[in-house]
Amino acid sequence: MKPKKESSENQKEREPVAAGETAETQSGNKESKAAGSNGDNEAIDTAMAVLGDLEALRTRAEERDQFLSLLQRTQADFENYQKRNQREREQERRYWNGALCLDLLPVLDNLERALAAARQANETGPLVQGVILVLNQFLDLLKRHGVTPIDPQGQPFDPNLHEAVMQQPSKEAPANTVTQVFERGFMIHDRVLRPAKVAVSGGVG
Fold first, then answer.
1. Are 116 and 91 contained in the same domain?
2. Does residue 11 belong to any structural domain of this protein?
3. Fewer CB in a 10 Å sphere around the end CB: N or C, the chain?
4. Is the separation of the CB atoms in 148 and 181 below 8 Å?
5. pLDDT digit string, tens, across residues 147-165
């Protein structure tokens, strides 16, 4: 007759135990391994959470830097706008009376023509002296507002300051030189208010 096979439970009971190791020891080792595995998983989860927090902080830091850069550019643009606006207002105040002064220049021209006619007639009476006084007051008034005459007589012709109305041959003056002034020009500060109307030499005729 064949011997009966032992049940699996009996086989497990008869498995050899390592030297110095009891069943309780084996069970403890299994529990320790399981606990160690759980601890490793918890450490990995914690590390992943920390990495996630770091990435979120890095993203927020980048957004903060972008907003800060935008704020700085906006502030710089606004300051430049204020400076430009202030310069434009100063320029407007500097030249705001230019149109009025330009309208007054024909009155000055007529005073000068009246004085020139009186001198040609050898007039030196009180009326002429009065015209001279008014003319000087007029020039002083214009000067206080930054308006000064252009005196181009004998100067090289400058199209930025002078308006040539005719050309005259001349033996004394070099070519392209102002030989006669028909109407005085005026500057307002550093701008031409009215160019001088002049005759220009064209060399020997």
1. no
2. no
3. N
4. no
5. 999 989 999 999 999 999 9
